[in-house]
Amino acid sequence: AREKLVTRVTEFKVSSELGDYNGYVYVTPFDDVHHYAFVYGNLGDGRAVPTRLHRANVVEDVFGGAKPIRASIERFKEAGCGVLVYLRAGVSGVPTRPVGDGTASEIERSKQWREVGLGAQILRDLGISSIRLLSTRARTYVGLAGFGVEVAQQLAARPQPDGVQVTDFGIRGFDLAFALLDEPEATILIDAMRRGEAPGTV
């Protein structure tokens, strides 16, 4: 069984020019800050929910206009629903200083595990089992599945020009095949790999 990382402590409503949201507040056993989830619309059966896992960054969020968040909210409005998970302090809620004994690699694995687990357990608490991940940069979230959350698609959070769609199909070849049935005017396929590896390396 996975370690319980989050506890919901309260709920609240948010009404703003960006829409109406249900807010949820979470705490963890390893830091003293609150983490938030903002839910837009009806999440239905909790599958393929547009989702942004956002690491709090005071400078970018305050002085940068929170562009990634606003872009994600536009996606929520297009889809009619969505979730913004706002993770604070350290690295997504993970202590900045290691706790306990262990090698550097073991500590790093533990930090990565908790980072993924924190966001995933918040999503599970909201009844979400699969997400359409909105991300502004490449980030690995394959560990989400270990906590019961599947990444159905990964979409660029930044707005794209009219007629342009950015989708990460992962290893889902059938999803790509069905998407091509829409007969787009042009298709650009990017085969991602570890740096330094040959194309097609698994």
Defining key terms:
202 residues; 8-stranded mixed β-sheet; 8 strands
Q: How many strands, which pairing sense, and closed or not: the largest β-sheet? A: 8 strands, mixed
Protein structure class: alpha/beta
What is the C-alpha radius of gyration, as a whole number of Å? 18 Å
Q: How many beta-strand runs?
A: 8
SS field, number of helical segments = 4
Strand order of the largest sheet: 1-2-3-5-4-6-7-8
Order of helices and strands: EEEEHHEHEEEH
The end-to-end distance, rounded to whole angstroms, is 29 Å
Which of globular, elongated, flat, extended, rod-shaped describes the shape?
A: globular
Strand coverage percent? 25-35%
Overall average residue pLDDT: 75
Tell me what the structure shows:
There is one protein chain. The protein is α/β, with parallel strands linked by helices and 202 residues long. Helices cover 24% and strands 27% of the residues. The chain has helices at residues 58-63, 67-79, 104-125, 173-180, and strands at 7-16, 19-27, 35-41, 49-55, 81-87, 130-135, 150-156, 167-168. The chain has an eight-stranded mixed beta sheet, sandwiched between helices. The two termini are 29 Å apart. Residues 90-101 have low confidence and may be disordered.
Write the layout of secondary structure elements.
Blueprint: E1 7-16, E2 19-27, E3 35-41, E4 49-55, H1 58-63, H2 67-79, E5 81-87, H3 104-125, E6 130-135, E7 150-156, E8 167-168, H4 173-180
Parallel strand pairs: 4-5, 4-6, 6-7
Antiparallel strand pairs: 1-2, 2-3, 3-5, 7-8
Can I get a quick summary?
With 202 residues, the protein is an alpha/beta fold.
